[in-house]
Amino acid sequence: QLGGVDFGVHRNTLDVSTADGLSALQQADMLHKTLSGSFVHTILEWSAFCTAIFTAILAFVHFRIKRDVATPIIGVALFCAGCMDAFHTLAADRLIHASADNTDLIPFTWAICRLLNALIMTVGVGMFLFRGINVQKEGLRFIVLTSGVFGITAYVVIRTCATSSQLPQTMFPESLVTRPFDVIPLVIFLILGLVLYPLFCKKHTNVFSQALLISAIPNIMTQVHMAFGSTALFDNHFNIAHFLKIISYLVPCAGLLLNYTRTHKELETEIRDRKQTSRELRATMRRLEEQTRDLRYAQFAAEQASKAKSEFLANMSHELRTPMNSIIGFTERLLEKIGPTLPEQHLDSLQTVDRNSKHLLGLINDVLDISKIEAGAMTLKLTSFDLVGIVSEVVQRSRSLVDNKPLDIYVRLPDVPLPIVADQLRVQQIMTNLLSNSIKYTKQGTVIVSAGATIDEQLGECIRITVKDTGIGIKPGDLNSLFDKFSQVEESGGRPGGGTGLGLAITDQLVKLHGGRIEVDSTYGQGSTFTVLLPLKVPEELTARSESVEAAVHNRGPRKCPLILCVDDDPEN
Ligand code: ADP
Questions:
Q1: Residue 528: which H helix or E strand, with range?
Q2: Phi-psi region of 515 (alpha: psi -120 to 50; beta: other; left: phi over 0)
Q3: From the CA atom positions of the chain, what is the Rg in Å?
Q4: Residue 36 half-sphere exposure toward CB, CA atoms < 13 A
Q5: For residue 31, what is the enclosing H or E element?
Q6: Residues 6+ apart with CB under 8 A from 430
Q7: Three-class DSSP category at 346
Q8: Among 54, 124, 310, 523, which residue's Cβ finds the most Cβ atoms within 10 Å?
Q9: Residue with CA at minimum distance from ligand 1 atom 20
Q10: Which of 249, 238, 247 is nearest to 111 (CA)?
Q11: What is the pLDDT of residues 283-333, one digit of tens each?
């Protein structure tokens, strides 16, 4: 008895002599009473088997979600133990053929099944503790293999028990250890509960492994009841042990269920978070689309405004040039006709008018050019011409800018191909801008203008025009913004003022229109070198607009010029 309650089922042995006088129904009733112990046993064992099946299924579900190999292996171990319980029940109920006597068969198959249960669990858990086996990496293959080994072992044991007519005696009601065969599983469950399960828990921290550790308690209790308590089939300890066995299967099953609900909750939260994120992303995308649309409108409006401004500037500059030209013309005529007769003060005033109106015209011309370029209205008039003539002309005209400075201008034209194809006036403008800057920013020394053929990595065959001076130079920090509109290097270090900051911006744009490139190399205080590269092969979109060009390009050949010997005492010359 346990706490005054007797869980045993007392068998009424069938009294054949009394049965003789009873009706068939009464006899059947008597038979059922005789078998009541067996019925209880069957119910208990079958419940354990069903729990084992359910635990194994849950273990595989857990594996499917978490990809954790530990659970199905232990699930399979529990399932195999459950299968042996089922066999033990079926054999005890004589539902499958078994040769041995029931009083030997039931306790022996129980003991052997418990032993195997403990061993399979030891092997299952041991796999994860033994470092040599990478169970996780092996995955499903490993699960199938282990299940196979466990299944075959269980089958062999079942078959041997069922076919043996003589099974060893397992119950000794008179001795202290009533069922000595149950002591071995008891020891194994103790080792599992005290050593292996705690280690497994440490390695696999989840609810399932903790439940497995707890399941050691009912397992040990089961074995204690059987080994030291049960003295007959279906007695108090016998039934308690069977009930505790169900609990020992139920605990890991509950652990898995808890794990499952926890995972489910985690997944639900994740799905909710993802939905929220995707909602936010959609909202952000909508906002971005709206912003892009607004930006496009704004860009379009800005482009229109800029075009209108450039057109206005172009028109205005054009209108301003006409009166300016007449002012300059009349001033020049006055200077020419009556200049020499005027008193010095009046002559000086007239010369100032002449100088400033020319400067103003230059400014208007620059504004006209830049606004034309910006409005996309600047088109090149390509012709074939001799660059040498242009260089000479530009240098000749620029000499007047030197004033009385100790400045020499040299020209070097080693091998300029003949003819080149470009917009002659614009090339002239490029060179004039560069040369006038060099003269303006060089107090003394030399300005060297050179031109020649070269091969550039990006542009291929090119004309290279270089203007090199020994002037004040440009600081490295100012080089980047040199070709920006209205950008002027800070006036310091004797840098002359005036100018518009448009000259280099126009030059840069004109070079780009020709498909070329402009570069600058300067050492502050020592001088600057501006290099213009114009491709010899004129871009197709430019040639398409001019018929005479192609013929000129085809006729290009080596320069034919007379050989002239010059003698001079200046080494630069
Ligand atoms: P600006 O009308 O002021 O000369 P540019 O666009 O032609 O305008 O030149 C921009 C600035 O670059 C100038 O203000 C000048 O300081 C600097 N610069 C241009 N060429 C030279 C040069 N050869 N040597 C030194 N500084 C130069």
A1: strand 527-535
A2: left
A3: 54
A4: 13
A5: helix 24-34
A6: 465, 507, 510, 511, 532
A7: helix
A8: 124
A9: 437
A10: 238
A11: 999 999 999 999 999 999 998 888 888 778 778 877 888 888 999 999 999
Pocket mutation for ligand 1, best pick of 429, 441, 480, 484 (most atoms within 8 Å of C-beta): 441
| Rounded mean pLDDT, 229-237 | 87
Average confidence (pLDDT) over 412-420: 76
Nearest-angstrom CA–CA distance, 50 and 125: 22
pLDDT in tens, 510-561: 999 999 999 999 999 999 999 999 988 765 655 544 444 444 444 445 555 5
DSSP assignment, residue 193? I
Which pair of structure tokens corresponds to residue 353? 């008018």
Strand runs (DSSP E) across 27-161, as ranges? none
- The ligand 1 site (C-beta within 6 Å) comprises 437-438, 441, 469, 471-474, 482, 488-489, 495, 499-505, 528
Rounded to the nearest 5°, which phi and psi values hold at 488? Answer: -125, 140
Out of 133-147, 229-243, 527-541, the most confident range is: 229-243
What is the average pLDDT value for the chain, to the nearest integer? 84
pTM of the full predicted structure? 0.50
Dist. CA 498 → ligand 1 center (Å): 10
